[in-house]
């Protein structure tokens, strides 16, 4: 429970970054292939396409996007980490470089780790406590200019962090590394600290790794793989760490990432065996055919559930959607099945609630028209306020899918009598527009949230706690702010166990039935297609992708 | 000659300033905030402000522009990407050879196709060859390179297994993290991109060459050559071709600059990690230094191409040879 | 023997609008060393006649019939390669516009050498020597330096000299000059004509001088042929033609000749337009513009009649001797009085 509590802190940040990358971080899933031990051979080069952009950084202290992290995971040696296991087992931390979970001092402020002896970097040098000290210094050093640690207020978490960040100290005084013993002195007790350490930022780096605000590209790593070569925007090559002696899988001899591949061309490449997998998934339009030809989760075409709920948001702070009846009317008016069909086969499951399966407190309910638009009901609920409502500014990004989605939604809204002003907005400033308080939009069609950890806090508190509204960068871009609901959220967050789940279950239902600030319509899935030679598919519930080091192409 | 050079250089500087100022102004006008993008979306306003300061985005636009000019002139540096923090010089250094391979290889393809076809069409107007080549021109001008590229890679790459579907290999063997390299692999991987890229230009040039040859054949000096008793082949080679291909040189110089833009489609379809691809990514992430760097580079290329064309033209045509 | 004997030469062009009869049966002969002036308006077929003789028309668009005997050899039956041998060596030709008739991207030396090398088995060095030599012959100053210059570095008159040099470098028997002075200013015209006369004395070639200017003919030619509507309408020795032109069109040409001592009276002009070659008028081609037109002129082409003045003086006209004599007397009196005034 503690672990999840702290996750909510940093994952707030991560969650948003993940939305930027339009990808998902894992949720519990049952859609994974049981790895058969027989027939798995080591060797070969695993060729991975990325139909999205290249990794922005491969420097562990600058990297942050989902793809960055799922790649870095194969090179990482962390104090604590997630195992290469499917389903819920894959989100259970275990001590990796540490001999065990840390000992915590009585005041709850000092954490002491003992590093396993014999761990080595890919250049043969030993992994000592200093390797983990360096990763902390690199994320907070003013010479690195990394926004990541500061976004989580890490400098306030650790003793001496502020002075180090300000350039007034050569080292963080709260971190002591001596041989294989590493201790952290915190400014105050923090139940989430161990889980914070599982982030890819805190992997072992050589103690002499330079401060370089451009980021390092090729460097020794202590995990099963290391980055052997990288040409940003062109390719990234991982090779097996010859000094890695642990039992994490390291099946391919090499893993090669090729970015920027056109998504349709990429599918052709995988079909032809010229590439093994596109880590960005398959084109929506191809899913049905692939399922028909290869079956689902039967060896080539994989559907992995995500924790992502897609929703449309109404601006609760502006007329007409400060009127709860109109918000409810819209929930009746939107054609959910049509929106799901738009995303192709196996895109996911339609919904009208915010929580998703696997999250404690999730219980399916139906409050609105989940099987199609109910125009009559919508008109009845909205009443005469629909006709007198001002013209709605409907905002969406200008991609083909977003435009189609907006068109369907606008059709539904017009059907019940709303007037529409369509506002396509470039992706580069879309979030800036909708996340700034006082925005003039009424209705957003591109919205979504993925769990960063399996707790309802990450959905309901993060997205709907009106007391946390700020001038800009609001995740609560419905601008929903209800004092009584805020209080209930705060109360639920303080609970644990069954009481917590029950409280959130009630809030999930109350949110939609009573307030309806948003229109949830889909719980999405990830769709992958592999070349025929690829074996040992293990889907990560944490990364929303397979473990690359486990895939076998030998 | 000196005056010619001085005039050229001033013109180049003027073009360069105009192109970069326009790039900066466009960025200033569009509402994207690179600092917010770089800071991450849950960043507090204070975080964004810190990133903005780090990227010098808190300065007025004219100071940013002067800073850019100073870095370029004083240090020959185009700055660092907002997104990846890589040196833009390095990014362009990595990408330019790819685009150059596509553009120059494509140019060789389209010239070696369109010149003979254009000449033969001109020599035998209304013949079967002429009609076939004029149909090709129509198709080539009408069809979009994305469509051509997708069809080619599906048919030739995927169905027939003749070429790779997508991808790029370096010309020079070796290199960082390359899976394939060497002239043979390079050409093999570029075959479809070249064809895709050149079809539009080949079509335009067939038409251009045909028209020029026909026009030149009706020139008085061609009649003079025949009156001298020159054979048909001598008339064509010595008198018609050189004169009719002169305008092609000029237009080629302009088109090579234009082609840098056209390369975007082909690079996207065939995943060639070149400048066109880079500029699209940079646009999507509001990465001003990378976009500006590529604009600067493209401007310099166009200026250099035009200069080369001017000089070459001087050699080919004594009438404008600077004395 | 005649250097060039042309009989019943007819040239038709196939166009999208129909068949154009540019030359409709032309016969003449040119003796060695003599000068034939061919006079006519634009579109009278004078240039096409000699392009046909040279075989310079595109065979895909034109059809040439009749007979062209050059030194007794039938040109119209000659093979392509034989024609190429003849062109430039036996017949040289120069054109109206010296500005466009030289290849702008080759030096004039190269172009002269090319002409020599095509027909003579000599080295390039020798060809260059001859090129310089012939440039001196056509009175180009500093020929040994200017040989490497390009056409755009020469004036129009100089370029026409180069053209003449190029036509003469292989010492042809016949030089066809297609309006060689039309594009030049008056002073230069006179120089070029004088040069041609001098060269004819030295080289002894026959000249065909195609022109629309009877003054040029009077100065240079021994014989003259007046062309109209693709036919020869009057031919004679020069003196005979000027002494007694027999045909209304010739009268018109003489009337439109400017005179240096004329006191500013308007030049006469022939009313109307040259005939359409696509749809030629029936009968005499000049009948739509002829002030003396009769019914017969619209029905029947007049035959080539022998004039009373001169030996080989023929003309096409339906007017009888008496009428032609009377009208010419009136015309001449008018011209003389204009001169006197």
Describe this structure as you would to a colleague.
The complex is a heterotrimer of chains A (554), B (323) and C (341). Chain A contains 18 helices and 18 strands. Chain A has 554 residues and is of the alpha+beta class. Chain A folds into 2 domains: 11-280, D-Maltodextrin-Binding Protein, domain 2 (3-Layer(aba) Sandwich); 305-526, Dipeptide-binding Protein, domain 3 (Roll), CATH 3.10.105. Chain B is built from 12 helices and no strands. Chain B is globular and about 85 Å long. The radius of gyration of chain C is 21 Å and the shape is globular. In chain C, strand 7, helix 7 (186-203) and strand 8 (206-211) form a beta-alpha-beta unit. The model of chain C has no long low-confidence stretch (mean pLDDT 89). Chains in contact: A-B, B-C. The B-C interface holds B 219-221, 223-232, 234, 238-239, 242-243, 246, 316-319 and C 54, 56, 80-81, 84-89, 92-93, 95, 97, 100-107, 114-115, 118-119, 150, 152, 163, 166-167.
CATH architectural type of the largest domain in chain C: 3-Layer(aba) Sandwich
Largest interface: A-B, 60 and 56 residues
CA-based shape of chain C: globular
- Helicity range of the residues of chain C? 25-40%
Give the helices and strands of chain B as they follow along the chain. HHHHHHHHHHHH
| H-E string of chain C | EEEHEEHEHHHHEHEHEEHHHEEH
> What's the number of helices of chain C?
12
Largest sheet of chain C: 8 strands, mixed
Q: According to CATH, what is the topology of the domain at 97-320 in chain B?
A: MetI-like fold
The secondary structure category of chain C is: alpha/beta
Rg calc of chain B: 24 Å
What's the Cα radius of gyration of chain C?
21 Å
Instruction: State the fourth-level CATH superfamily of the domain at 97-320 in chain B.
Output: MetI-like
Roughly what percent helix of chain B?
Answer: over 70%
Assign an overall shape of chain B.
Answer: globular
CATH topology of the largest domain in chain C: Rossmann fold
Number of strands of chain C: 12
pLDDT under 50 segments of chain B (min length 5)? Answer: none
CATH architecture of the domain at 97-320 in chain B: Orthogonal Bundle
Q: According to CATH, what is the class of the largest domain in chain C?
A: Alpha Beta
């Amino acid at each position: 429970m503690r672990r999840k509590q702290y996750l909510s802190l940093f994952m707030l940040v991560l969650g948003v970054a993940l939305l930027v990358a339009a990808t998902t971080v894992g949720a519990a899933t049952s859609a994974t292939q049981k790895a058969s031990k027989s027939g798995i051979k080591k060797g070969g080069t695993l060729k991975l396409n990325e139909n999205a952009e290249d990794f922005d950084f491969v420097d562990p202290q600058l990297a942050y996007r989902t793809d960055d992290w799922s790649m870095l995971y194969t090179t990482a040696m962390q104090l604590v980490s997630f195992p290469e296991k499917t389903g819920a087992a894959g989100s259970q931390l275990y001590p990796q470089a540490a001999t065990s979970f840390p000992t915590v001092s009585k005041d709850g402020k000092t954490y002491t780790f003992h590093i396993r002896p014999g761990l080595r970097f890919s250049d043969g040098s030993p992994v000592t406590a200093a390797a983990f000290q360096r990763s902390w210094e690199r994320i907070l050093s003013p010479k690195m200019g990394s926004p990541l640690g500061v976004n989580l207020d890490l400098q306030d978490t650790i003793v001496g962090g502020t002075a180090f960040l300000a350039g007034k100290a050569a080292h963080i005084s709260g971190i002591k590394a001596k041989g294989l013993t590493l201790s952290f002195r915190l400014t105050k007790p923090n139940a989430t600290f161990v889980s914070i350490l599982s982030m890819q930022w805190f992997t072992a780096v050589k103690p002499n790794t330079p401060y370089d605000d451009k980021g390092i590209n090729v460097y020794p790593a202590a995990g099963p793989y290391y980055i052997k070569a990288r040409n940003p925007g062109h390719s990234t090559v991982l090779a097996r760490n010859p000094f890695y002696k642990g039992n994490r899988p390291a099946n391919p001899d090499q893993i090669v990432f090729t970015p920027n591949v056109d998504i349709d061309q990429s599918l052709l490449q995988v079909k032809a065996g010229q590439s093994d997998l596109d880590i960005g998934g398959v084109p929506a339009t191809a899913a049905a055919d692939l399922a028909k030809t290869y079956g689902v989760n039967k060896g080539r075409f994989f559907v992995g559930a995500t924790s992502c709920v897609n929703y449309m948001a109404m601006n609760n702070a502006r007329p007409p959607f400060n009127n709860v009846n109109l918000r409810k009317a819209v929930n009746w008016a939107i054609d959910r099945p049509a929106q799901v069909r738009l995303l192709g086969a196996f895109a996911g499951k339609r919904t009208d609630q915010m929580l998703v399966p696997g999250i404690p407190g999730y219980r399916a309910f139906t409050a609105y028209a989940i099987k199609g638009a109910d125009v009559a009901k919508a008109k009845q609920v909205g009443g005469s306020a629909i006709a007198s409502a001002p013209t709605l500014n409907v905002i969406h990004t200008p991609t083909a899918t977003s435009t189609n989605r907006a068109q369907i939604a606008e059709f539904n809204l017009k059907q019940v009598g709303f007037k529409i002003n369509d506002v396509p907005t470039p992706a580069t400033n879309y979030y800036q527009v909708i996340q700034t308080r006082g925005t003039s939009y009424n209705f957003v069609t591109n919205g979504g949230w993925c769990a960063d950890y399996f707790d309802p806090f990450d959905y309901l508190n993060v997205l709907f706690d009106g007391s946390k509204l700020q001038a800009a960068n609001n995740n609560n871009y419905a601008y929903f702010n209800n004092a009584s609901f805020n209080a209930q959220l705060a109360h639920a967050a303080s609970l644990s166990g069954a009481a917590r789940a029950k409280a959130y279950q009630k809030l999930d239902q109350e949110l939609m039935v009573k307030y309806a600030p948003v229109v949830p319509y889909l719980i999405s899935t990830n769709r992958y297609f592999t070349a025929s030679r690829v074996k040992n598919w293990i889907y990560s519930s944490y990364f929303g992708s397979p473990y690359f080091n486990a895939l076998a192409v030998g | 000659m000196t005056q010619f050079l001085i005039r050229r250089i001033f013109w180049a500087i003027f073009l360069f300033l105009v192109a970069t100022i326009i790039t900066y102004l466009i960025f200033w006008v569009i509402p994207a905030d690179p600092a917010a993008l770089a800071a991450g979306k849950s960043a507090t306003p204070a975080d964004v402000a810190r990133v903005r300061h780090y990227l010098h985005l808190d300065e007025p636009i004219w100071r940013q522009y002067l800073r850019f000019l100073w870095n370029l002139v004083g240090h020959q540096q185009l700055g660092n990407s907002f997104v990846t923090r890589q040196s833009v010089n390095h990014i362009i250094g990595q990408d330019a050879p790819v685009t150059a391979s596509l553009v120059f290889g494509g140019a060789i393809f389209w010239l070696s196709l369109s010149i003979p076809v254009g000449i033969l069409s001109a020599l035998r107007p209304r013949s079967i060859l002429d009609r076939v080549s004029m149909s090709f021109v129509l198709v080539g001008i009408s069809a979009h390179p994305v469509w051509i590229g997708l069809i080619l890679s599906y048919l030739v790459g995927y169905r027939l297994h003749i070429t790779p579907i997508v991808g790029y290999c370096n010309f020079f063997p070796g290199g960082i993290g390359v899976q394939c390299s060497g002239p043979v692999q390079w050409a093999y991987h570029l075959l479809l991109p070249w064809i895709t890229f050149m079809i539009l230009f080949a079509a335009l040039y067939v038409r251009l060459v045909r028209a020029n040859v026909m026009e030149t054949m009706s020139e008085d000096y061609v009649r003079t050559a025949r009156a001298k008793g020159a054979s048909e082949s001598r008339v064509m080679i010595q008198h018609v071709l050189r004169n009719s291909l002169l305008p092609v040189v000029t237009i080629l110089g302009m088109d090579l600059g234009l082609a840098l833009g056209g390369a975007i489609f082909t690079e996207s379809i065939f995943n060639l990690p070149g400048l066109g691809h880079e500029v699209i990514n940079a646009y999507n992430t509001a990465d001003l230094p990378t976009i500006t760097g590529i604009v600067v580079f493209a401007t310099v290329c166009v200026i250099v191409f035009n200069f080369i064309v001017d000089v070459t033209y001087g050699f080919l045509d004594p009438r404008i040879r600077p004395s | 023997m005649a250097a060039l004997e042309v009989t019943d030469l007819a040239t038709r062009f196939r166009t999208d609008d129909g068949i154009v009869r540019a030359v409709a049966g032309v016969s003449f002969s040119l003796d060695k060393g003599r000068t034939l002036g061919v006079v006519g308006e634009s579109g009278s077929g004078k240039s096409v006649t000699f392009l046909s003789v040279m075989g310079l028309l595109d065979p895909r668009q034109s059809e040439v019939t009749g007979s062209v005997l050059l030194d007794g050899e039938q040109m119209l039956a000659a093979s392509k390669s034989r024609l190429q041998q003849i062109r430039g060596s036996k017949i040289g030709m120069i054109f109206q516009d010296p500005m466009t008739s030289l290849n702008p991207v080759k030096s004039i030396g190269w172009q002269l050498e090319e002409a020599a090398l095509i027909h003579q088995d000599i080295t390039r060095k020798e060809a260059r020597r001859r090129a310089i030599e012939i440039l001196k012959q056509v009175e180009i100053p500093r020929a040994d330096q200017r040989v490497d210059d390009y056409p755009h570095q020469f004036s129009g008159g100089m370029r026409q000299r180069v053209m003449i040099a190029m036509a003469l470098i292989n010492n042809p028997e016949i030089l066809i000059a297609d309006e060689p002075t039309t594009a030049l200013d008056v002073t230069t015209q006179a120089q070029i004509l004088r040069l041609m006369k001098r060269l004819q004395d030295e080289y002894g070639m026959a000249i065909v001088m195609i022109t629309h200017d009877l003054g040029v003919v009077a100065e240079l030619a021994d014989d003259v042929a007046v062309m109209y509507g693709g036919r020869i309408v009057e031919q004679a020795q020069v003196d005979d033609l000027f002494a007694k032109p027999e045909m209304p069109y010739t009268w018109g040409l003489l009337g439109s000749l400017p005179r240096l001592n004329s006191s500013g009276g308007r030049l006469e002009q022939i009313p109307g337009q040259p005939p359409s070659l696509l749809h030629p008028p029936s009968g005499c081609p000049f009948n739509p513009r002829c002030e003396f037109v009769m019914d017969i002129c619209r029905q029947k082409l007049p035959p080539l009649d022998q004039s009373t003045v001169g030996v080989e003086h023929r003309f096409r006209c339906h007017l009888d001797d008496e009428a032609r004599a009377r009208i010419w007397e009136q015309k001449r009196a008018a011209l003389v009085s204009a001169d006197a005034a």
